[in-house]
Design goal:
The complex is a heterodimer of chains A (282) and B (337). Chain A is mostly helical and 282 residues long. Chain A has helices at residues 8-27, 29-32, 70-106, 108-122, 126-137, 141-151, 153-168, 171-178, 183-219, 231-239, 246-274. Chain A has one domain (71-281): MetI-like fold. Helices cover 31% and strands 23% of the residues of chain B. Chain B has twelve helices and twelve strands. The relative contact order of chain B is 0.14. Classes of the chains: A mainly alpha (282), B alpha/beta (337).
Chain lengths: 282, 337
């Protein structure tokens, strides 16, 4: 077997490494950040990063338009991304997995209602749905989680629906029915455990999606209101000064890319790991 | 009154081309503590009958008529919730393929405990105790050590023992065994049949043993029900079916049992094949393959009638006593084909 240069093992390790690093950064933000992310210092506006000719180690990643330290803001911004991304993915995962398994196992009218609802929602762009809701009820972390969580359930529902339909046909499900088990018991004990690996992979990849959507909403001004430090907000603020102070947009964009890339790599690595067709497990 | 009385059970499968009758007016009784064998070739409706008794028939299959009376209750009149109380607790079922009937990602111990958790309020310790006792009873001596192994780590025979343990763990009154030995090799088959017989003696449950192997029937059953194309053609005590065979189809089945003492060019088989479910159901369905058929056979609907105590047959010629006594060939005569 030819060894792949970028095998699943490396993917999982590197992806998990990046994610863990950023999560730790989010948790220990107060210890790591050199400045208060909201402290304005108008004497030190738009200081470039240390690698620029006029940069200094006082602000290693420079400052923004209000003289706030970029490094501190990036560190604090990771909190929103991580919390909103994971919470929204968990919410949509729970909702979608439950509805998908229910539809797949019951069939009939339940299936028709749930899956047609999913189809209807899929026909409507997620981001548009999110914009509508946030515009109506306002942007707070909780609202963002609710909106992203409720709009993301269809992905899980469809995956779980199809997998449930195939697992349901296996004889041990029939055997369990013959022992007197009811639907809820069978779904909980026999179907769900079979689908956990797939759910893990989908959920991991969806965390990245949710983070991207959160930054997109923040960028559009529909996320958490300024001055809250979020990567999307910083990207939006940096856009106005792309020529004068490119580091603001570049650095916040880079932070988003690194996190999403890490999560996707982890998700893809896990998918390969659980794929029975890939040779040798870890 | 018998423990289980199946009356005029009819099951149909709805397809795009129309409805196919898989089980057509089957009536049979099961006494407490007896072993009833149901025998017939593939497609004769044995398994559909069993699934109908358990009400496990799924779309597009449907029970169109009849009644299944267990201990005075018609199971077909119950709602799903009530029916679940009977499954596994009163009537249990073993399937053909032990490997696929066990959940591959659950330990065998957990699976044996499942019916206990469904039907009784037991805590984990009590359930585990009972499960281990049952695993030991079916011949898994080191049950404590094997409790946490997964089905793929066991041999086929052990898996079927686990299946038996988990169907009997609630001590049901009826065990339906749907070809329990078909997927096993011959020595293991004998062990499993022996085990079933022992357990039957110990727990006193009645067994419906479904098989296509008359040898198995001869070994363990007390009564036999021969099915053909969805109908019961003969039902008799086991010695009567071999000694005083009444139906030509039963005779043909017995004649096709291979015998190792005689050298033959080819194994004998019943010529022709079972009518497909879409074929027209008229007269005796075996008539086209029967060497004793008269023209009237294929137009007259055969009624099942009693020919001797506990011996019933659905053949107008047998009823009239017109069939030769030597339909079942002696061993020496089986050098044909």
């Amino acid at each position: 077997m030819k060894r792949k240069l970028f095998g699943k093992r490396l993917k999982i390790q590197l992806g998990a490494g990046i994610v863990i690093l950023i999560v730790l950064m989010a948790i220990f933000a107060p210890l790591l950040a050199p400045y208060d992310p909201y402290a304005q210092n108008l004497m030190a506006r738009l200081v470039p990063p240390v690698w620029s000719e006029i940069g200094s180690w006082a602000h290693p990643l420079g400052t923004d338009n209000f003289g706030r330290d970029m490094l501190s803001r990036l560190i604090y911004g990771s909190r929103i991304s991580i919390i909103v991304g994971i919470a929204a993915a968990l919410l949509s995962c729970t909702l979608g997995a439950f509805l998908g398994m229910w539809a797949g196992y019951s069939g009939g009218r339940v299936e028709q209602v749930i899956m047609r609802l999913a189809d209807a929602q899929l026909a409507f762009p997620d981001i548009l749905f999110a914009i509508l809701i946030v515009a109506a009820i306002g942007g707070s972390a909780l609202n963002l989680i609710m909106v992203l969580g409720l709009s993301g359930w269809t992905v899980y529902a469809r995956v779980m629906y199809n997998m449930t339909r195939s697992v349901k046909e296996r004889p041990f499900i029939e055997a369990s029915i013959s022992h007197g088990a009811k639907a809820a018991y069978i779904i909980r004990q026999h179907i769900f455990p079979q689908l956990v690996p797939i759910l893990t992979v989908v959920a991991t990849l969806q965390v990245a999606q949710m983070i991207l959507q959160e930054t997109a909403l923040s960028f559009l001004g529909l996320g958490l209101p300024p001055p809250t430090a979020t990567w999307g907000n910083m990207l939006a603020e940096g856009r106005d000064r792309m020529w004068a102070a490119p580091w603001i947009a570049n650095l916040s964009g880079l932070a988003i890319i690194i996190l999403v890339w890490g999560i996707n790599m982890l998700g893809n690595g896990l998918r390969e790991h659980y794929d029975p067709n890939s040779q040798g497990r870890m | 009154m018998a423990l289980l009385e199946v009356e005029n059970l009819t099951a149909v499968f709805h397809t795009e081309k129309g409805s196919n009758t898989a089980v057509d007016g089957v009536s049979l009784t099961l006494e407490a503590g007896e072993i009833l064998g149901i025998v017939g070739e593939s497609g004769s409706g044995k398994s559909v009958t069993a699934f109908s008794i358990m009400r496990l028939l799924r779309e597009p299959g449907e029970i169109a008529a009849g009644s299944v009376v267990y201990n005075g209750t018609d199971l077909l009149s119950l709602n799903n919730r009530q029916m679940r109380k009977y499954r596994g607790r009163e009537i249990s079922m073993i399937f053909q393929e032990p490997l696929s009937s066990l959940n591959p990602i659950q330990s065998i111990g957990q699976q044996v405990m499942e019916p206990l958790f469904i039907h009784f309020r037991l805590n984990k310790v009590e359930a585990k105790e009972r499960a281990i006792a049952m695993l030991k009873r079916v011949g898994i001596q080191d049950a404590e050590q094997r409790f946490d192994v997964y089905p793929h780590q066991l041999s086929g025979g052990l898996r079927q023992r686990v299946m038996i343990a988990l169907t009997l763990v609630c001590e049901p009154k009826i065990l339906i065994a749907d070809e329990p030995t078909t997927a096993l090799d011959v020595t293991i088959q004998a062990q499993i049949l022996e085990l079933l017989r022992e357990l039957q003696a110990e727990f006193g449950m009645a067994i419906i043993l479904i098989t296509h192997d008359l040898g198995v029937i001869a070994e363990v059953a007390q009564r036999v029900c021969v099915m053909y194309a969805g109908e019961v053609v003969e039902i008799a005590p086991v010695d009567a079916i071999f000694d005083r065979t009444a139906h030509p189809y039963s005779a043909a089945l017995i004649n096709s049992i291979p015998n190792r003492e005689i050298e033959v060019e080819r194994l004998s088989a019943v010529a022709g094949s079972i009518p497909g479910p879409e074929e027209k159901r008229q007269g005796c369905l075996f008539a086209t393959r029967c060497s004793f058929a008269l023209p009237a056979c294929s137009t007259t609907r055969q009624k099942i009638v009693s020919v001797a105590g506990g011996h019933k047959v659905a053949c107008m010629r047998a009823e009239a006593g017109e069939l030769p006594a030597d339909m079942v060939l002696s061993l020496a005569e089986r050098k044909h084909d």
